[in-house]
Amino acid sequence: MFLFVVFALIALAAAVGVITSRKPVYSALFLLLNFATLAALYIMVEAQFLAAVQIIVYAGAVIVLFLFVVMLIGGGELDDIGGRNKKFLARLTWPRGIALVLGLGLLVAVGYGLLSGQLMTATNDAAAFGQGSVQAIAAVLYTDYALPFELASILLLVGMIGAVALAQPPKKD
Amino acid sequence: MTLVNDSTTVPAEPTAARPPTVGEQLAARFPNAILGASTFRGDTTLTVAPTGLTDVARALRDELGFDHLSNLSSTDWSRYRGYAGKERFSTIYHFTSTRTGERIGLKVFAPGGDSPAVPSLAALWAGANWPEREVYDLMGIKFDGHPDLRRILLPNNWPNHPLRKDIPRGGETVPFSMIWEDEEFQSFGKQIVEAKSVQPVPPKQADANKHMILNMGPQHPSTHGVLRVVAELDGETVVAAYPDIGYLHSGFEKQGETIRYKDFLPYTDRMDYVSAMSNNLGYSLAVEKLMGVEIPPRAQVIRVICAELQRLASHLVWLGTHIMDAAGVSHALLMYTFREREQLSDIFELISGARLTISYIRPGGVWKDVPPSFVERVQDVLKAFPARIDEYERMITENPVWLGRARGVGKLTAEQCLSLGVTGPLLRASGVPFDYRKARPYSGYENYDFKVPVMTEGDTYARYLVRLEEMRQSLRIIDQALKNLPDGPVWTADRKMALPPRQELDTSMEALIHHFKLMTEGFVPPMGEVYHSVENPRGELGFYLVSDGTAVPYRLHVRAPSFHNLQATDTMARGSLIADLVLVIGTIDIVLGDVDR
Amino acid sequence: MDYLRNFFVNLARSWTAWIGGFLPDWGVNLVNYLVVGIILVLMPVIATLTLTWMERKVIGRIQNRIGPNRVGPWGIFQAFADAVKMLIKEDIVPSGADKPVFNLAPILIAGAAALLWAVVPFGRGMIGQNLNIGALYVVAVGSITTIAVIMAGWSSNNKFALLGAFRVVAQLLSYEIPMVLSIATVVLVTGTMRMGDIVERQVAPFIVVLPVAFITYLLAAAAETGRAPFDLLEADSEIVAGYFVEYSGLKFGWFYIAEYGNLFAIAAITTTLFLGGWRGPFVSVAPALGPFYFVIKSVAVIFVLMWIRGTWPRFRIDQMLAFAWKVLVPASLANLLWSAIVLQIGRQPEQLGPTIVQMILLLVGNVAILAVTGLLLGRAARRYAAQHGWAGA
Known about the structure:
The complex is a heterotrimer of chains A (173), B (597) and C (393). Chain A is an all-alpha fold and 173 residues long. Chain A contains eight helices and no strands. Chain A is globular. Chain A starts with a helix and ends in a 6-residue tail after the last helix. Helices cover 37% and strands 15% of the residues of chain B. In chain B, strand 13 (528-536) and strand 14 form a beta hairpin. Chain C has 393 residues and is an all-alpha fold. Chain C has helices at 2-5, 7-20, 25-62, 78-88, 99-115, 134-155, 159-190, 195-200, 206-209, 211-224, 249-274, 289-311, 317-344, 356-387. In chain C, helix 4 (78-88) crosses helix 11 (249-274) and helix 6 packs antiparallel against helix 7. The chains are: A mainly alpha (173), B alpha+beta (597), C mainly alpha (393). Chains in contact: A-C, B-C.
């Protein structure tokens, strides 16, 4: 429990760091810290496989690409795009309004899930995962959720082909 | 690999019913442009009106086959003894035919008094770009129509044009000298002093908004010295590469114009310091041509052996460092080649006492006869080297990574080579069988049986194979020379340059006076000008000498092969990756002492 | 004698018993964790001190030199002299650098190098933590290195360093795929991700059974750690030193430690996955021999990598990526597929490790994949040569 509190606090602090950092690179690095603490939390619930995948996919690939893009477009400090000097209402442009509404909606949903116990049903039996939950995840993924899994892989394939098509240099004649 | 046996013909002996010479043909075609012709020591020089220069040069290139602009230089005639011409400055162009080896010089007196200008040849020969910039930089002659006329060797804010005769040697104010009273230096040590002589980055042609400007050098592991290449990059792709030179410029030409002919020899060691022997040979031959002296056969053969040993040593350095560019310092080949080079350096030490700055071949012959063990030591080289070269080949030639890295990289076509004034192995790897040892034989090279390796691909790999084959051919030449090493003196008998023998001094007053004059004043060539070039390991090394009948050269210009070859960097590197740029610099085989002089 | 047979495990037991005499249980655990942690953190440092000396000697001999020979007998203390020099050098931070990131990068990279050692089985029962996802853990920790390299390259505010960081992204991401695929093949064949169990079930070294996976893993691992001929991240002749060009003193030392720690680690993992780990003659009698076999095998792998470094030119970035995507990935995918098929043939329900028949079938498939790859490569090379009009090839 003690470790959970420590990691949870780090994760929260990192999440706050992501949205308050003035430099995009710092945001990306805070996000990395956040992912790393999440991986630690996974390990604490005996889900080592998820933890490893979390690190490989998010730290190894997603953050790397974030950093890469940030480096490419220049990682300098952000200008005063938030318009800090303006009043709160004056800063509330329509994209921000939508973001605010969606964010609040998400919070409400999570809170409802926690309070009603909807998010807790599948737990309580960490030992059933065994083997870092590899077998458990595989069994569920390839039986109950086979169709969504295949759909996701097709989506990724389409994305990959699209990226290759977009990135192809114009043909020289 | 296609080895073409070279059969470039030597210019035919003039016969009774000879066809009109090139000079006569040109004079007939351009009666208004050709103002005069002179021949000195077999060199024909036509005087051309500035307005007709471009037409004459084009006719020379397109109709008469003089496709190679060997040398481009200039002279300030203001202090020349007995000079009565109107114009103070002249430029001189030496053209060579890569097919017949014929050469002709064009001299243009630049109108405009102290701020002269002549038409630029950069539109006809892209390779005229840098030499014209050099002339502008050092002599202050403007070239109309030049695409990018800036200083090249000296800093942008240099106050004068140092090769002009009214600029004393060492008398100029140096812009970055430190005067402690200067208030700019009051806080020295506490601040970074603004380096005024640095030219702005990026170069004006570069597009810094769209591309990344990467400054490679002057301190960079792969620029083989203090070369700076400003590379314009799109990702890792080289959009353009702008070599920036002059960091090692030491004013050798100005220096040479203040000391006696024989005293300049040690300076030649320090230009292309990887092949000092070849530089010694080139300079000695030019001076001997100016003096008109004959060199005894033994000295000639020794010279050939030394020059070819030097070619081996130079190619060994190139091979080791070139692979190092491609592989990093951990690659083993560098040490292997230096092991072999050690053997050659030992031979040079044996015959001259020096290993790097040799000064062994001198105007008039060679310094001293070779010691008896010389032959044996060279035979050791002949025995060991074929297996060693095979060893390198086993290590690299078929290596798939090396094939992938070298093939198709830094391509140059034969036309590009000739246009850029590129010579040496680069030119031969592009399919032009042009080698001064065959085209204009000197020191008796016509007596040796050797092939000029030629390949047609024109890429880094072809140049690699050409150089390796050249090493084998050098061994053949050395072998033949060693077998036919004649006995006899190694110093010319011509009293214009040779000291009288000791016993004559006791009996002859004239001999004593002559000895005294030679020792105190030095030998005195007649008035005239010559250009002579040799096949340096890197390409055409030429010396242009103007004598005003004193013991000090009036004008001394060096046609450095690295300087001209380096111009091809941009052409070779465009569109390739930054890793290729490193290989391109390596394959040119530059020596910065040679580039900057 | 019996004590010596399983010396290392017995030593650990005696140690625990001894400190258990005057410490409470949680104290014993704390001390033991601390000791193991210190050993793991020290591993990269020890690897650096020994491997730099070895590399210099090996490269020196390859280059026809003697190598270090002044500090101590055969120059074995050269590395210590270098370490002292590195410690007393000035620590320079470039004025334009992003200081927090610049300082964080060496810590992260050295930390990742130390973490890798947690799952390396030096002998039976001699493993920091026999994680149930050991093989995945290796990949996960490796991906942290990527981040550290990017951080170093970006924060240095140097174009050479930035170019190095660009190369890292392309290179490490590309080579992670064949690496994971070849590890997955081993995992599939052994049916476990625990590094300790992989060794236990490796009746015959997998280099004989799965040569394709071995070659792929070794090449990909060399690329991941930036060893020649894949050392484009720090290509000294092109981008000077790449991502750590601006580092000096101790921070540079951390990169150095990470490089050699990683080198030893990939050699150790190669040994674990493909060379039978600590297995060897008489190990069942005297398990204390295990670590010696393990180190000998690892050093052999390291020697091969050094040998390559001394004699091969460096790839170009496009060739390198093409090699990963066009050669390594298809070959290892085919290998994975073939392994999956073979393992279904005559499968017993509680089978641990492959049977003899399966191993032979695997070998046949691997040889076929090697042959096809070689054939296709040769054809491609000839076609490419023909397109460019090159004779021979």
